[in-house]
User: Fold this.
Amino acid sequence: MLATKAGLPTGQGPNDKGSSRFHLQRELEGSLRRLNTDYVDLYQIHTFDPATPLEETLRALDDFVSSGKVRYIGASNYAAWELMKALGISERRGFERFVCTQASYSLADRTPEAELIPMCLDQGVGLIPYFPLAGGILTGKYASAPVGAAPEGSRADTDPSFRRFLGGRADELGRQVAALAETLGVQPAVLAIAWLLARPAVATVIAGATRPEQLRANLAAGALQLSEETLERLDRISDDFRHGNPFAVYRLP
Assistant:
């Protein structure tokens, strides 16, 4: 499946960001050219654009589908009310509707469960989590390191700003997930992604891989069936992460 996104800034000009027809069409044509194809399966809006009327955005997306250049459309980083508003406009105007939405979601960020996931279940929208491993916290790489330390090559090592997520509850969650994964004979990353795949509304998971072993772990997560006991334990140890701020969110300034 081919998927691409548009909406975040690509330059300094007034048409270099957002969800206007001009910007979305230009970015779509650029993606088609770079991918050497005449269509994409999924075209997603990277984030809600408060400066562009939703009807303009949705009409443009509807036209892209009608033209055959896009098969399905999706959102990303929309609040539940923003996504519901978009679905309402699409229904009223007869436009193609968003079939999916992306959001930060993991054992270390369960904030979508408050509003976004109930809305997705009610409206038949698939959820595609990004940051499923919380930037590596759920891989176990920080579990054996001193508190606040950054293993060589980790996200916290290459991006010092990531260190704000280390310490306290997040580190403890990483250690508990790693310990449970060891008892099950799987890698922590496999366990964390398998938990996500078992969650309501989750359609698929965005899981990156820079090494073959990471790709194998991702594939193993898709095949792992967790018991109810394991799911309940993961729910318990991550319960605190249903509250507070999202692990990550991308919004236009």
Remarks:
- The longest strand covers residues 70-76.
